[in-house]
């Protein structure tokens, strides 16, 4: 679809925009036709945002820090919804303040990313390739529920667009053991010497 063919879906705010998941959510929202106000904590390098499809027309960056709640006012102004990714909000707070609130609890997030750093959860799942034995130990990956980055982004948008959505949702795809992960990585990357059992 060409940029001119996009169906305008209104403006939303995403907090913690520089993060692993939030930056992917921003990409998905822009691709779906939303205008996005993204908050970042400081005026750091955020070139990767401006390179996202639709960003030059529909993405605005705001500086805001949760330590200064008022700093979010400008970013939220005029938005039909807020994806508050930077920090979890307790349901009790939303109820007390009359917010139309839906909570999504993701399991371990894996998959593509647009942020300029290797996210911790992706690093752990790729540790058998990278050779970081401490990360693929039983501690993290003995039996772990996984969700794909883009499935999680789509789940956020789906619930945002569902008026009947209410309360708390868990977003998960599969539960995988370290042996299964090794098997999957070996099949996908046969060129790497991947252990077949947890050591
Ligand atoms: N990754 C996973 O597998 C996973 C699994 C379950 C739940 N979660 C939850 O999902 C959310 C996003 O995860 P993620 O992996 O994308 O995290 P992340 O990459 O660490 O991103 C967190 C974002 O929140 C921002 N932030 C932190 N403190 C802030 C503050 N005081 N004011 C404003 N912004 C602040 C960070 O800004 P800076 O860049 O300035 O630090 C960053 O942009 C987190 O709440 C995390 O606990 C993640």
Summarize the structure.
This protein is an alpha/beta fold. The protein has a domain at 10-116 and 147-172: Rossmann fold, CATH 3.40.50. 34% of the residues lie in helices and 22% in strands.
Give your account of this protein's structure:
One of its GO terms (molecular function) is oxidoreductase activity. This is NAD-dependent epimerase/dehydratase domain-containing protein. It comes from Cinchona calisaya. 34% of the residues lie in helices and 22% in strands. It has a four-stranded parallel β-sheet with strand order 3-2-1-4. Helix 1 packs across helix 9. The mean pLDDT is 88. The structure holds NADP nicotinamide-adenine-dinucleotide phosphate (NAP). The site of NADP nicotinamide-adenine-dinucleotide phosphate (NAP) has 19 residues, from helix 1 and strand 6.
Write the layout of secondary structure elements.
Layout: E1 11-15, H1 20-31, E2 35-40, H2 47-50, H3 55-58, E3 59-63, H4 73-76, E4 81-84, H5 91-96, E5 102-106, E6 108-110, H6 120-125, H7 127-130, H8 138-141, E7 143-148, H9 149-160, E8 167-171, E9 174-177, H10 178-188
Parallel strand pairs: 1-2, 1-4, 2-3, 5-8, 6-7
Antiparallel strand pairs: 7-9
Helix pairs in contact: 1-9
The protein binds NADP nicotinamide-adenine-dinucleotide phosphate.
CATH topology of the domain at 10-116 and 147-172: Rossmann fold
Shape descriptor reads: globular
Please count the beta strands (DSSP E, at least 2 residues each): 9
Q: Percent of residues in helical segments?
A: 25-40%
Distance between the termini: 48 Å
Indicate the CATH class of the domain at 10-116 and 147-172. Answer: Alpha Beta
| Proportion of residues in β-strands | 15-25%
The helix-and-strand class reads alpha/beta
């Amino acid at each position: 679809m060409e940029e001119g063919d996009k169906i305008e879906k209104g403006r939303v705010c995403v907090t913690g925009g520089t993060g692993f998941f939030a930056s992917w959510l921003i990409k998905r929202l822009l691709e779906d036709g939303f205008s996005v106000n993204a908050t970042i904590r400081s005026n750091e390098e955020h070139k990767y945002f401006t390179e996202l499809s639709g960003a030059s027309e529909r993405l605005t960056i705001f500086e805001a820090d949760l330590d200064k709640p008022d700093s979010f006012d400008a970013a939220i102004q005029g938005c039909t919804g807020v994806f508050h990714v930077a920090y979890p909000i307790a349901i009790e707070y939303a109820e007390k303040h009359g917010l139309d609130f839906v909570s999504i609890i993701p399991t371990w997030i894996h998959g593509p990313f647009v942020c300029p750093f290797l996210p911790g959860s992706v690093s752990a799942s790729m540790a058998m390739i990278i050779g970081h034995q401490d990360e693929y130990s039983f501690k993290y990956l003995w039996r772990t529920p996984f969700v794909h980055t883009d499935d999680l982004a789509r789940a956020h948008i789906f619930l945002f667009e569902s008026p009947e959505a209410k309360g708390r949702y868990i977003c998960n795809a599969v539960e995988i053991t370290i042996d299964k992960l090794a098997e999957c990585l070996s099949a996908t990357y046969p060129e790497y010497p991947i252990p077949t059992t947890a050591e």
